[in-house]
Each structure stands twice: as C-alpha cells, then as structure tokens.
Amino acid sequence: MANDPTHQFLVNKIVPIEIGGIDFSFTNASLFMVATVAAAAGFLYFTTSQRGLVPSRMQSVSEMSYEFIASMLREGAGSQGMKFFPFVFSLFMFVLTANLIGMVPYFFTVTSQIIVTFALAMLVIGTVIFYGFYKHGFGFLKLFVPAGVPGVLLPLVVSIEVISFLSRPISLSIRLFANMLAGHITLKIFAGFVASLGALGAVGVVGAVLPLLMTVAVVGLEFLVSFLQAYVFAVLTCMYLNDAVHPGGH
Amino acid sequence: MFVTPASAESTPFEIAQAETPAVTHEAQPAGEVHTETGVAHGDEHATGVFPPFDQTTFASQLLWLAITFGLFYLLMSKVIVPRIGGILETRHDRIAQDLDEAARLKAEADAAIAAYEQDLAAARAKGNAIASAARDEAKAKADAERARTEAALQEKIAGAETRIAEIKAKALADVGSIAEETAAAVVEQLIGAKASEAEISAAVKSAAGK
After folding, report:
1. How far is A150 from chain B (nearest CA, A)?
2. What does pTM read for this prediction?
3. Residue B188 lies in a domain
4. Predicted ipTM of the assembly
5. Whole domain around residue B177: which residue ranges?
6. E strands of B22-83, at which residues?
7. Which of A9, A10, A49 to probe by mutation at the B interface, max B CB count within 10 Å?
C-alpha cells in the first residue's frame, strides 16, 4: 500500500459529517484546503502588515504577485476587466499555494482532485456567463458570431465556437488536475524505485542512483509545473473574462 | 484505465452496490481480518475507484472548497487587495511626488545657473567696458600730453630759431663795426694818421660787398 502511487490521492475522513444522507465530512482534502487558504492569506496578510514604503523582501514577494496578476489581467481583459482582480488573484494564489503545499512529502494535493479543479473552472466559466449576460444581455451571444464570416459558413462557425466555449471548463480543469496528478504519480513511482531497489542490497543501491537522480530532477520540474499551472489557470481565466467584458471584439 | 470495470460508469449508488460483494468476499475467507473491517472498508471503498474519481468524496470536497475558497476570496477582496493596492498607490504617489520635487529643484537649479551665467556675462561686459573706457581715457590723455609736449617743443624750437636769427643778425651787424675798428687801427699803424670814420666805413662796406 505504501508504494501504491494513487494512495496519496485518497480522501480520508477526519471528522465525519453527514447532512441529509450526503457525506460532507471534514477530510484531509478539506484540511489542506484550509491549510492552503491559511498559508496564502497568512503570508499575504503578515508580509504586508508593515505597509513599508520601501518593501521588505517578503513584502515585495506579495507585491510582485499582486502586480503580476494585475498586469496579466490588464493585458488580458483590459482596464474594464480589473473589477475581477480579486477573483483572479484569489484563484491564482489558491491554486499556486495548493500546488506548492502538495509538493511537501505526505501532504495532500488539493488540486489533484478533478472535482476541485472542475469546480474552480466552473466558477470561472459561470462568472463569465453570468457577467456576460448581466452586462451585455443577449449581446453576449455575439461571442459566438465572429464578425466578417460569410453567411454560408455561419452555422458551422457558430457551432464550432459554441463547442469550444463549452469545452473550456473541461480543458481548464483537466489541465490543472492532470498535471498535478501525473507529476505526483511520476514522483511517487521514481521514489518507490529508489526504496525498492535500495532494499535489494549493494547492486540495488547502485541501481537506485538513477531513479534517485530522476526523483530530484522531477521534484524540480514539479515545482516549475506548480507555478506554471497556476499561471496558466490565471492567464486562461483572464482570457475568458475578456470575452465577458468584450464579447464582440475577439 | 484507472477505474475498475465495475464502477467505470458508476453513480454513487452503483459503487455502493459494487462494493458490497467485494467486502463480503474479503471478509468470508479471512476471519482474522474481520476485526479491521471498519478500516479495511474505508480503504477498500477508496481503492475500488481511482481516488480522484471517487464520487462519494465530491460533495464534501465541493462544500469545503466553497467554504475555504469563499473565505479566501472575501479575505482577498476585502483586506489583502485593498491593502497591497494601497501600498503600491502610496509608493507610486510618493515616487511621482519625489520626481516632481526633483524636477522642480532641477528647474530651480537651472534658473540659478542661468541667472549666474547672466550675471557673469553682465559683469564681464561691464569689466570690458570699464577696461576699454580706461584705455581710451589713458590714450586720450597720452595723446593730449604728447600734443602739448610737441607744441611746447615747437614753441621752444621757434624761440630758439628766432634767437639764433637775432644773434646771427646782430653778429653780422657787429662784423661791420669790428672790421671798421680793425681797419682804422690797421690804417693808423700803417700811415700814422687817422682816417676819417666815414672813409673807413665806406671802404669796409665796399670790401664786404665784394
């Protein structure tokens, strides 16, 4: 069981809670969601509590993440999109922190659960649809009708646009989920090789060097992926929000 | 691939159905495991499905995600974003203010330099004017002095020339009487008699006239 690469994704109940026959237990997944929020919010809160005119190192990390997302959103969705800044910033910080916390051995990776990434993706798409209709009414549907397309091709183009729009939450959620899942499984398998080869004696120990090096390399890669996937998630969110803000112009 | 065939298209209900025989199957041959059934059931329940696709955990995860992410969003939008935004705004304002101040000081310094240059140029021009005036004055004075000296010299030369002319004329006039006296003395010595003054004078004049 210890070497089962999927064991790390098991959701275990810590405090069983059941409401109306549905299981709402506080699980290790819930615990690490709380830890993610506490770590991200705590970091941002305490590093900026000095409000230094000249920032300390940690304060400048918080400011950098703020400006990073702010410029991303401004480029992606224009200045009108800036009203979504707290949302995109929360998403980015949540996903990034969850990914990074998941890199600690024996810690649970919140974003390796498809339901979590799917819920976040649906939140994004839901926001896009809700704000799009709220702001532009049926004008939001212009999103599916690109300008300058000949009438004959219009049904085809519109159906393609609709399908691509509908596939967004799926691709958005599966990209993050699959990256975290695959990375952690790869890591677990290589690390498992080290342990099981090391148990075979001298030859095994020599043979274990290669998977050990791979494990180290994959750990580095996974840290990169952790950041990159949070970045990609935020960038795509900005792009989708741009459709809600400017449905005609794309 | 990760999902067992029994639950490949499972609803939570179907999972429950599929698991029931699995548990009983395991519990039947190994009676000693039965004490761990509670724990084993939890593991069995999860290993039956690839954990991330275990739909029985979805409701709980969704609820807790909603709670934690909702709280996180509130905290971000109410506290963190305004705070960091405020910090950055303050800094930008401060930098802009400092830049303005620096630009103002630079303008002042430029103005001071310009005024200094102007003063310097004026002083230099004034100095030049004074110097040239002094030079002109000195030159004029020297010219006047020279003119006066030349005039005085000219006057002296003229006086001297007239005096020389007078002396010459007088000398020339004296030459006649000296000659007459000399002639009278010579005549007296030679003939022992005095010649009349008129004769001697006529004789000298005729000799001088030759």
Report:
1. 42
2. 0.69
3. yes
4. 0.90
5. 172-209
6. none
7. A10
